[in-house]
């Protein structure tokens, strides 16, 4: 009888199996479920919300509060990502990009992934409730439900607008950060929410364009599969234009000075150019560059808010 083929070795996955190289392999598998690189940027955006909520330099106590709030948001966001990996294990197994995930490969059982997600969510919520404030805990928990249930379970398999509506949960971090420091939700935080909300469609659809075969196999109704490449590229371009306008709002509202404005104009022009080129002259390589640029755009834009806040 032929021996049962053993599964191919897990490739170094994009979400940190490689980055977690020094960790024992079991720990690395759990860590990979938290989609570490995505969650890092999420926590960074939450941190900027915290920084902007405190006029001038934070006190020692405020630095402490920021650290605890960041940890709490990190844990709950990781829990949401792990829950997504559990729910989508069969879909992930059909896509090249995600087939390496420990849940897709059956290396972690459903029970283990669920327990891990519940543990992180409980620990993060407890931190936020006892050491930050109840509003932040409830808003973060609502964000967990928004991503893990509303986006992953309800919207993603049903509508190509899944990531537009579901993007609202990804846009919450600055609101969570602001609430952690003030116990309130300020207009400034809502402006940052709007920026991430408008950024999400070009961020995701650029990726979906060059991963279209993966999404076709997955059975998910992503825009390039349901409406084709040209329509998706037009949407990407239009969103980069609206995003450009949205990114001017912190300056118009008086939250920032010319330092942020210069960064917003430069980064926005870059993203619009990518959107335009992609629309007019598509290639997978350009779509990949546009996706990568989306990450640079958001990271530097929020870093500019930080610099601006402390310089002015
Ligand atoms: C519903 C909203 C969103 C969707 C559907 C989405 C989708 C995706 C997908 C599919 C990837 C995987 C790329 C790959 O495997 O090569 C990705 C990567 C990434 N996303 Fe998003 N994203 C969303 C929101 C966000 C938000 C709000 C942030 C941060 C604020 C973010 C940050 C990142 C980062 C940093 C990566 C790169 C990960 C890596 O290099 O390993 N995303 N996104
Ligand atoms: C509490 C809190 C702040 C929660 C944040 C929720 C969260 C992790 C939002 C990020 C969005 C994200 C990882 C999208 C990936 O899309 P996908 O899930 O469609 O990608 P996939 O195909 O890689 O699974």
UniProtKB/TrEMBL annotation:
Compartment(s) of residence: Cell membrane
Gene3D superfamilies for this protein: UbiA prenyltransferase
Record protein name field: Protoheme IX farnesyltransferase
Pathway(s) it belongs to: Porphyrin-containing compound metabolism; heme O biosynthesis; heme O from protoheme: step 1/1
Reaction(s) catalysed (UniProt annotation): heme b + (2E,6E)-farnesyl diphosphate + H2O = Fe(II)-heme o + diphosphate
GO molecular function, one term: protoheme IX farnesyltransferase activity
EC assignment: 2.5.1.141
Family under the similarity heading: Belongs to the UbiA prenyltransferase family. Protoheme IX farnesyltransferase subfamily.
Pfam family for this entry, one: UbiA
Additional record remark: Carbon 2 of the heme B porphyrin ring is defined according to the Fischer nomenclature.
GN (gene name): cyoE
Membrane found in the keyword field: yes
Species: Diaphorobacter limosus
């Amino acid at each position: 009888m032929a021996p049962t083929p053993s599964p191919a070795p897990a490739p170094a996955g994009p979400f940190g199996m490689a980055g977690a190289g020094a960790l024992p392999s079991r720990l690395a598998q759990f860590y990979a479920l938290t989609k570490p690189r995505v969650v890092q940027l999420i926590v960074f955006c939450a941190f900027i919300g915290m920084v902007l909520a405190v006029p001038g330099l934070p006190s020692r106590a405020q630095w402490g509060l920021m650290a605890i709030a960041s940890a709490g948001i990190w844990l709950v966001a990781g829990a949401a990502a792990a829950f997504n990996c559990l729910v989508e294990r069969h879909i992930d197994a059909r896509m090249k990009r995600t087939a390496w995930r420990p849940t897709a490969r059956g290396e972690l059982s459903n029970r283990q992934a669920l327990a891990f997600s519940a543990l992180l969510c409980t620990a993060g919520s407890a931190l936020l409730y006892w050491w930050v404030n109840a509003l932040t805990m409830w808003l973060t928990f609502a964000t967990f439900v928004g991503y893990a249930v509303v986006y992953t379970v309800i919207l993603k398999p049903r509508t190509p607008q899944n990531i537009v509506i579901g993007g609202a949960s990804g846009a919450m971090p600055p609101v969570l950060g602001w609430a952690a420091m003030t116990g309130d939700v300020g207009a400034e935080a809502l402006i940052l929410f709007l920026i991430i909300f408008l950024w999400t469609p070009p961020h995701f659809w650029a990726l979906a364009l060059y991963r279209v075969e993966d999404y076709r196999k997955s059975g998910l109704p992503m825009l390039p599969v349901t409406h084709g490449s040209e329509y998706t590229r037009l949407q990407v371009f239009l969103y980069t234009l609206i995003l450009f306008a949205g990114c001017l709002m912190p300056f118009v509202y008086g939250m920032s000075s010319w330092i942020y404005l210069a960064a917003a104009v430069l980064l926005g022009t870059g993203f619009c150019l990518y959107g335009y080129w992609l629309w007019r002259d598509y290639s997978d390589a350009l779509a990949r560059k546009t996706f990568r640029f989306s990450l640079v755009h958001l990271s530097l834009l929020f870093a500019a808010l930080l610099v601006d806040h402390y310089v002015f």
